[in-house]
Amino acid sequence: MQPDDADEVDLRDYLAILRRQRRVVVATLVTVVVAALTISFVQTPVYEGVVEILLQSNRSEEIFAPDANTFVAVDPARVETEIGVMQSLSVRQAVEEELGRPIEVTIEAQGETDLVRLTAESTEPEEAALWANTYAEVYISSRRQRLVDDLQRAITEVQAQIDQIDQEAEQPLVELDAQIAAAETDEEREDLEAQRDDLLGEVEEREESSETQRSAYSTRLNQLQVAANLTQTGGAQIVSQALEPTSPIRPNPVRNGVLAAVLGLVLGVGVAFLRENLDDTLTTKDDLQSASGGLPVLGLIPAVTGWKDRQTPRVVTITEPSSPAAEAYRSLRTAVQ
Q1: Taking 80 as the threshold, does the pLDDT of residue 83 lie above it?
Q2: Cβ contacts of 64 within 8 Å, gap of 6 or more
Q3: Burial class (CB within 10 angstroms; exposed 0-12, middle 13-18, buried 19+) of 223
Q4: What is the DSSP pairing of strand 236-240 with strand 115-122?
Q5: Over the range 243-263, which residues count as b (16 or more CB within 10 Å of their CB) and which as e?
Q6: Taking 90 as the threshold, does the pLDDT of residue 68 lie above it?
Q7: Which of 85, 99, 227, 303 has the fewest CB atoms inside 10 Å of its own CB, making it the most exposed?
Q8: Superfamily assignment of 47-240 in CATH?
Q9: Where are the alpha helices (DSSP H) in the chain?
């Protein structure tokens, strides 16, 4: 026998097993599919609300680095940092205070972009959308407040620098004026006033040299004040609000049914081959010949319905001489002779 013939025989054997065990395969398939669909329809539906948030550079960063390129590449570290802030305890507590209950959300970066996807799940579709939108709004409000606080601190620092420049310029004159006012004699007063005239010239020269620095600080202060007044988005904005979902994300009966059908078919075939392997009954001529060690099979006697009644003996060759069973007996007699 050629290898191809052997493969063909094996394939026929496998198909024969599946034909004999087809009820087992079908029963297993139907059982698994029905169980999966039953579980799918019994489960409580879960809905998903999705918000997309665009992260922007801080206005304060643009002010303190005015020469920086506005169109910079996406910084994955910055995006991951903001995701960490969004998941922070302070934001979650603010959301809990707003909604009156804690919620769980999933936050993911959208590829190599500044977009962040925020997802909230609930058994009620309106809640899923409300939770996602509320979480995003609370985060943006928190981020805006942080930005305003940063700007206010920067304004305070810049104003302190300006005040220090003015104080350093005027301080010598203030001290000398105090000495003049405290002078006890006219001669001492005239001497101090002469010193004041000389010092006034030095102060004017110093003010001219520090005017550039003071002007730069004043410009920076004006920019910070404008930024604090105009800050609206807080460096982030919602580009896609969560809409009330119309269908649940799970369970998915169609998907579960398809997966169950595949699993049931595989399981059914496995059970069929297992049953066939454990079954030692002789059902075919080939089984009988294989069990007898290759001895030839002289004949096969088909079952007769009347044989189930063991109380009434029957001789089929006499009662039904034309039946297949009677013909099988005659063939067996001929083979034995």
Answers
A1: yes
A2: 154
A3: buried
A4: unpaired
A5: eebeebeebebeebbeebeee
A6: no
A7: 303
A8: EIF_2_alpha (3.30.70.1130)
A9: 3-20, 22-42, 59-64, 76-86, 89-99, 125-182, 186-230, 253-278, 285-291, 316-319, 324-336
Q: What is the SS3 assignment for 207?
A: helix
Using DSSP's 3-state secondary structure scheme, residue 46 falls into: strand
Of 8-12, 108-112, 234-238, 313-317, where does the model show the most confidence? 108-112
- Distance in angstroms (rounded) separating the CA atoms of residues 257 and 265: 12
- Rounded CA-CA distance 148/36 in Å is 54
Q: In what order do the strands lie in the sheet with 105-109?
A: 105-109, 115-122, 47-55, 236-240
Instruction: Kindly give, in sequence order, each residue whose CB lies less than 8 Å from that of residue 63, ignoring residues fewer than 6 positions away.
Output: 220, 223, 224, 227
The DSSP call for residue 250 is B
289 vs 296: CA distance, rounded Å: 6
Full-model pTM? 0.59
The answer to whether 192 touches 211, Cβ cutoff 8 Å, is no
Spatial contact of 36 and 256, defined as CB atoms under 8 Å apart: yes
More confident residue, 271 or 2: 271
Secondary structure letter of residue 232 according to DSSP: -
Q: Which amino acid is at 27?
A: A
Question: Quick one: what percent of the chain has pLDDT higher than 70?
Answer: 74
User: For residue 252, what is the enclosing H or E element?
Assistant: none
- Looking at per-residue confidence, does 250 or 288 come out higher? 250
Q: Are 265 and 33 in contact (CB under 8 A)?
A: no
Angle, in degrees to the nearest 10, between helices 253-278 and 3-20: 110
Start-end of CATH 3.30.70.1130 domains in the chain: 47-240
Residue 189: other Cβ atoms inside 10 A: 15
Length of the chain: 337
